[in-house]
Design goal:
The complex is a heterodimer of chains A (476) and B (149).
Chain A (H helix, E strand, L loop, with lengths): L2 H23 L6 H27 L7 H21 L13 H24 L7 H17 L5 H4 L13 H13 L8 H19 L5 H13 L1 H7 L5 H21 L4 H13 L4 H20 L4 H24 L15 H6 L4 H12 L7 H14 L3 H24 L4 H12 L1 H41 L3
Helix pairs in contact in A: 1-2, 1-3, 1-7, 2-7, 2-8, 2-12, 4-8, 4-9, 5-7, 8-9, 8-11, 9-20, 11-12, 11-13, 11-18, 11-20, 12-13, 12-14, 13-14, 13-18, 16-18, 16-19, 17-18, 17-20, 18-20
Chain B lengths: L1 H40 L4 H5 L9 H9 L6 E5 L9 H12 L4 E2 L8 E5 L10 E8 L2 E6 L4
Parallel strand pairs in B: 1-2, 1-3
Antiparallel strand pairs in B: 3-5, 4-5
The chains are: A mainly alpha (476), B alpha/beta (149).
Amino acid sequence: MSREVLLLLLANGLELCVGLGVVLALGLADTSMAFAARLGLAYGLGLAVTGILDATFAIARVAIGLPELALLALGSLLVGLLRRSQRTAAVAQTAEPRTGSTLLALGIGAITAGLLAVAAGAYAVTPLVQWDGWAIWGTKAQALYDFGSANGPLFTSPAYQGIQQSYPLLLPALEATDYRAMGAVDGSVIHLQLLLFAVAFAGSLFGLLWRRAPSELIALCVLAILAASPVLGQLGSNYADIPLAFEIALGVVALARWLSDDEPWLLPVAVVFLGAGVLTKNEGSMFAAAALLPLLVYLAARDRRRVLRLLAAAGAVAAILIPWRIFTSLNHLTAGDIRFSNALHPELLSAHASRVAPTVQSLVDEIGGTSWGLLVPLTALGVLAAFIAGRSALTWFAVAWLFLSFAGLVLVYWISSLPLDWYLGTSAYRIVATLVIGGASLTPLLAADAWAESKKALHGLRRTRGRAARPETFPA
Amino acid sequence: MRAYRVACALVSCLVLVTVVASIVRSLPATTRTLVRQRQAFERLPASVRAGWAPAMPFSPTVIAFYALHLRPGDRFYVQAPDSGKLGNQRASLMLAAGYALLPHLMVSRPDEADVVLSFKANPRTLGLFYTSVDKLVDGISVARVAHVA
């Protein structure tokens, strides 16, 4: 293992410590079993928190390297441990047995680890060969490393318009932190950071749904998502679409669990992941809004006492984005040709109406494409399972998020004046990733109650058969 | 109640079959692709992989020629044919040079530059004075701008 790889892993180890502090502070790791189950969530949270800080400090002329990361990790761990010691309620330290479900999940997790190991072998030797991978994200990451902040011509001058200056900085800022840790720019080793996004996603989804959905089902869904060829294929291109999809999916799952279970820790976790999403790509704001709005409508109608907490969470997500919005506004950076305010101009919408049908067709083709495996039918079955199990709120939330997100994507192509064929051809295949990955990530939660009911019925059936069989097997 | 249980069991079985089928369908192909990706790049020396000249419609020799003529702190201007269409030669070269020549910075006006990098163009047409003009071949040159104090 090269020195650069070790230093990159050290930086990520410190990010894990940052997340551990958050997990401890939220009271999510009070038993050894919970600690083990939430270690992946800790890493995901650490990566998201560090990414948010990296991106925000980059516009405040503060560069984060190994010493700053170490301080951050230390501070987070101290706060986490302090909060943990303040919780006076005795935590039951009962031994939690390893059930068949856990063992099965561990077996599936081993296959996932094998897949990620194969990916690590490929990523570690792959140069930055994909166009946007070097032209947009690679250029920004190297510039943040070279100049220490985003306050320079590269991020503001018209000469660099081509690098999409209005895209937020989470991914390149994290990569710049890795370069600082390595002491050099390495366009090949940096791919391991992208792979670590996949590790964080897998661990975080498991940690979010642990004890709420069957472990084996979570593990199977994680493996199905990572095995779908566009996921690791696109992730290794240094495009931000898959990191965005991971962050938004985790935020949406946390929101869905909060809606279903009303556990207080879920809302801050959702804020962190959605906040990381909105700082990764511009469409992150659209996906986050598509999750928060229907939830707000639902709670306003059904459970008003939770509306304020949700509004506070939505405000926190918006607050994470505000510094970047101020930066883009001060420097007159626009999202090129796409302005959501165009959606309020009926004459433009009418003039562009011919773009809608081909856009819908293209997006549906991409979502239903065979490359995603069976993730789309899986999501549909998850929604059906939640509906059958009487989880109407979860069903509503999942359908509303998927529908609004899809509608938002159609709107982007509708209001744009870029040549439609070119635009769809260069982006549709990757812009649908958040929808597909988000939907599949919701599946274990959506199917959890039907699954539990089936297991109960199966055990009941076994007991009945056992009782019926006993007299023959062991005659009195 | 019985119908509810049967429906739950049925949908759970479908979920299980679908997720397993998705894995069986995707995992071998994804693994093969990753192995091929590794085989394609692992023989390159680490230094070449780390500082890969990006895939672009220009020979790496052109970018290397430009890089050779830049001094620390030089700001450069890219002069190339610009059709105004997406992905035209100038826009592409600006992206490639902007990345490959970092930490040198690109400027949007020739009179702000220390050096003009020309591709299929003549720096004399910009109306600037130069202290030197180095050519790789006709149309590909590096011209150092004479700044008047």
